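Hi Q.,

Before the meeting this afternoon, I wanted you to have the protoporphyrin IX containing FE prediction in hand. No need to reply - just skim if you have a minute. The sequence and ligand are here:
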Amino acid sequence: MDLLLLEKTLLGLFAATVVATIVSKLRGKKFKLPPGPIPVPVFGNWLQVGDDLNHRNLSDYAKKFGNIFLLRMGQRNLVVVSSPELAKDVLHTQGVEFGSRTRNVVFDIFTGKGQDMVFTVYGEHWRKMRRIMTVPFFTNKVVQQYRQGWEAEAAAVVDDVKKNPDSATTGIVLRRRLQLMMYNNMYRIMFDTRFESEDDPMFVKLRALNGERSRLAQSFDYNYGDFIPILRPLLKGYLNICKEVKDRRLKLFKDHFVDMRKKLASTKPMDNDGLKCAIDHILDAQQKGEINEDNVLYIVENINVAAIETTLWSIEWGIAELVNNPEVQRKVREEMERVLGAGVQVTEPDMVKLPYLQAVIKETLRLRMAIPLLVPHMNLQDAKLGGFDIPAESKILVNAWWLANNPAQWNKPEEFRPERFLEEESKVEANGNDFRYLPFGVGRRSCPGIILALPILGITLGRLVQNFHLLPPPGHSKLDTTEKGGQFSLHILNHSTILMNPTSL
Ligand code: HEM
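Predicted structure with the ligand bound:
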């Protein structure tokens, strides 16, 4: 760092300290803020609590400070909600007041300051984007149009695993093949296209750029510049990398997918809705002037992240739990054989007849929530919550993982026991009908992709268990299920090697 910058930074820090002290004095008089650790000027609670505010650390703070507490992270207010009643208030009763999103310096780059749908503030743009995306992505018609494609993709995974001699000897990192499957499931919907293999050059490029985007966005490395604006100049290098990745990514989406599809549409006009893929609908909306070209690309960006990664992480967690709980795995296999008949491959319409498989999916999403704190919410105006004042533009985290793993609310929540969803919790669904269980959120900003995610999870896990005994690799009795959290994501730290013995030869 050059000396001038250091001098400027120190001076800025001093000025910020003075301003923060005055503001906090004034604020203290005006607001009845939620409890929390005592903040120090400038840094707030940041130095006390650190960067990694994952669902487990935040559950520990809830035990100490209560079901609503406030952390000052530099200049930012972070309010954490940890009871079903308060979750209901944020997501349902005051769903409009708390229906915005916070972004940060990095998410601002990747979403063009909220030109997308997932990270945009609550308002006209969000409503329009959600409406435009519903018909091409989030209806039962879409499930019926694509479910055979998803079944074919799962069958292709089974075939490839069977062909690979390592599968039943040393084991394979199954995730790699499942990642290709998830890209194909979503790129079929978006662009009516798929990638042949893990080595397909376009797939390799996409995977690398999307991976880089996620790593940069979910990292804690940029917190200092986000929490303390005066330090932002020091983030310049990081933000430049983000900008470069964003530009390369959007260019790839445009040149190789959106424009290709446009060209195809102009040479071979589509005469009925049945032949349209999602991007055709989205381009129609652009032609009508409802959205602009950037919005189109940000829709593609959102699906690449919100749909592919979350579902892949959940599949990966499901497999890990099935390997580590062989009795559960046996029961899933037995149910399919009993209900469908030996060797009959499971399809989407079968799901309603397979309650145990559904319970396994629910239990996976309970214990291993892919987005354990939901996507952060935000109140645009000053608001009230749980009898406290919440200053405008606070980041509101709903600790959905704790709601679903609090021993005061669930019977032995640390156990992976799908039976709970057939016994004492048989009325609980994944769609948010119970505020203790919100793997997809609930209310205005809830996940519209649930309608696709549940059948994809069912088909994939079902086919794998039908065709293979899923086991830990030789020399291991269990898979390592250490978690890796990000700004609001949760996935498995080590992508496991899995031994896959065919159930029939
Ligand atoms: C197992 C897979 C998935 C999980 C666990 C999951 C979970 C979530 C969660 C927790 C939220 C935030 C809810 C909130 O903030 O209140 C969300 C939002 C969202 N999800 Fe999903 N999701 C999954 C799959 C998908 C899929 C397949 C798609 C698209 C095809 C999708 C699209 C979205 C979108 C667009 C939003 C933003 C909604 C908004 O802000 O209005 N998700 N998801």
